[in-house]
Design a protein that fits this description.
The protein is mainly alpha-helical. It is built from 5 helices and 2 strands; from the N terminus they run βααβααα. The chain folds into 2 domains: 65 residues, no CATH class; 52 residues, no CATH class. GO terms for molecular function: ATP binding; helicase activity; hydrolase activity; nucleic acid binding.
Length: 130
Amino acid sequence: KHFVLDEGDKMLEQLDMRRDVQEIFRNTPHEKQVMMFSATLSKEIRPVCKKFMQYPMKIYDNDEAKLTLNGLQQHYVKIKENEKNRKLFELLDALEFNQVVIFVKSVQRCMALAQLLVDQNFPAIAIHRA
């Protein structure tokens, strides 16, 4: 009944991801409500998104304050690839949290990071497209 795509622009920009999304889309009921969400929807990708929808309703919110949930903390650190694991564990040791979502670029990195977290006694599961 529903087809929901979060970070739709990112998933549709990459051709391999777009193919996966199209395959999943084709295997859902023809009559469905399609919802796509993105904080960074570019003008170039909008026509691709529209191909998944009939009579789309667009809602744009340019108020940055509304884009962050109350109580949610977001952290971004720009570092070299070989420093990422060390810095992640520094943050996990220093911050108080109930749960954490970590986004990575590949299935392989997802699987490896989940195993590394478990090895370091952090309960973790890998959620990916494969």
